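Next up, a specimen:

>
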Amino acid sequence: MRPLIKYLSYWAIIVRAWSLPMTAASVLLSAAYAYYLGYVVYLGPLALTLVGALVLHMSVNVLNDYYDYVYGFDRPDVLTYRPHAILMGILKPRAMLNLGMALIITGSLIGVYLFLIAGLPVLITGALGLVLLYGYTGPPLKLKYRALGELAVFTTWGPLMAIGSMAASTLGHINYLVIAAVTPVALLVVATLYANNVRDAVRDREGGAVTIAAILGDKARWLYAALVVGSYVAQLIMVFVGALPTATLLTLATTLNAAGMVRKAMRNSFERLDEATARFSLLYAALMIAGLIISKIGM
């Protein structure tokens, strides 16, 4: 039993398992919104969509650690505040790269199958998502190091994942309001990434990387607060205009959690705040999903 636990713990470090709830939140919320709108949601394709999205999310995490190490941003002192598969000796750099590419290929094959059964929107959103996921740290785009990482993440976990997940789980149906529905969670995903970048801002700046957190310096905390508060504001606007049902305001039950995260950020204490924000995004999405289902049943 102990070797199995050790093996699983290594895999959790390699793929940054703590961050995966963000992807589950976006995919499941998109499908729930499709159900609320009256579309038939097919559980098989939905499950496959979720697996494919998680595999691709793992790939970007693996490649991020690989490229940060190769470019010299991740050095041994990183281990004082977070695990790192290469620096811990779990995988060698070449093996890390190979794993990242294998995960991309696996996720892409799942995407191809979903395209065959659900149509062109899955192919288009999937292809664009792949470009942004690999290009986050991979050459030649290196979006993370050019202050474009947050935009790439919002686009991927927002519009692309919303449209792709809805199309795949309904076998080809799309309602573009799903983008609006997923926006609050997408903002929390960006907040998760941003919290990580704030924590690494000094290291990134010294290494020559240009991130929004590095540019903002001492003012970086304010953007994190704006992203968290913005998720509530975006949802309230969508409820007001009728894009979301009132029952989704179950999310207001999380305001104390959100306030705690924001207070921590305002103290410039970003240690493990990325992990806390990732878990929070899943809770937020779960309450939105519950509200959508309650509204649908009550129609």
User: Anything to note?
Assistant: The chain is about 70% helix and 0% strand. The two ends are 49 Å apart (CA to CA).
